[in-house]
Amino acid sequence: MGGGFIEGRWVTGLGAPFAVENPSTGAVVTSVTGMSLEQIGDAIRAARHAFDAATWADLPFGTRAEIVRRYVAALETRADKIIDLIALETGCPRFTSSMRSQVQTPLAQAHQIIDLAQSLPDYEDNPLPIGERVNLMNQPYQSLRHYTPVGVVAAIAAYNFPFLTALWKVIPALITGNTVVLRPSPLTPLSAAVFGEAAEEAGLPPGVLNLVLEGGTEGGQLLTTHADVDMVAFTGSTSVGVQVMQQAAATMKRLQLELGGKSAQIFLPDAIDKVVPVMVGACTAHAGQGCALGTRIFVPETDKPAILEKIRTTFAAIRIGGADDPSTQLGPVISAAQRARCEHFVALAVENGGVVVTGGRRPEVPGEGFFFEPTVLDLPDNSNPAAQEEIFGPVLCIIGYRDLDHAVQMANDSRYGLSGYVFGADRRKALEVGLRIKSGTVNVNGAMMSSYVSAGGQRMSGVGRERGIEGIRLYQQLTCINMGA
Questions:
Q1: Is 136's pLDDT higher than 90?
Q2: Is 373 a catalytic residue?
Q3: Is 291 considered catalytic here?
Q4: pTM here?
């Protein structure tokens, strides 16, 4: 495998080859031939030409929606193939809710994104007060908001949910009339091929959807600096997101950056029974490799000893295994480097006063693959490095609070602000606490991932929103049209 999909045809890569590993075994499963920098430039030029020709953007919305629905249908017929490839290249256990979130959930949401986009008008009236609708000369005035496509979108997906993070960019971009250059993570390039296959089957016009593969970062840098790219939609780490923002600044590109998180979960005193089950879910969800997962757990100090004892018993029973084992609850992390990162932060937590409650090392079984035990760290306070930095593995931190003011203060003491969680039997009190959390999303007594509800980060967790009305409008330019008599 190698190369990419440019202007409606498959091309052989002329760049350096790179290996794809199976996290469940640590073995190399294939070598992919990357694309040269010139070929990635060709993909950008193809997308630019397709947009400037206006044959896609100028289609009646209903016609474009019909084509995009065919495109989604072509992806749906490949669902089993996508599951196989994601299990292979990410190590996500195929028989878990995490795999449903990888494939079935975004496929269902794709249709909803189209529905939502179709419900939004191209023109909206600006809410002028009556005094400004007629000037002093008794002449009427009207002001409208007009929405048009941004242009060429560079969609850069993440390795943890490669299909989902790509689809959440590709579908909103296409349905609003943009053209796309999709670049998957070099760690998970295999499942990206379906985007090109579906484009062929659905009859997307040449250049509207382009796919580029590379093992390094030069192509990604080109996508974020090239003058012919109008917008960059990126999911990944905060450190890389900062680089993307810097690289895009010279050409003032539109940005959608969904970056890292260190989300807090606050449990009110009347919701202590929910702590351990919720922690198990956060730890085992794709081995903790989710930027919005609640990895900082805040519980009343008086209840913490009993909670820790239950954690030891419950976490010891979590089944660790490969992606294809039906009994697996916790799969591997993506790479040896990511496993080493987990080890590093466990050691750093202990150096700074933390205690390993359970886990904290590589398991003896399985002996191969990039596995790390489900780990809970008892931290003395929120300043511990393990509470401040995103680890991106099955490592949770539990911290006691004196009162709810203390809990909220610690929850907000973070450079991240992607998501947050509050649990309480007293719904009013739980909502009051939730309203005080500074985060792009706050979930009270449950979470929601809907095409009709946007998500995005505050502070170092990113800019822009995905999904929802805001996630559609982000792929559109706004022009205000003011008309007099």
A1: no
A2: no
A3: yes
A4: 0.97
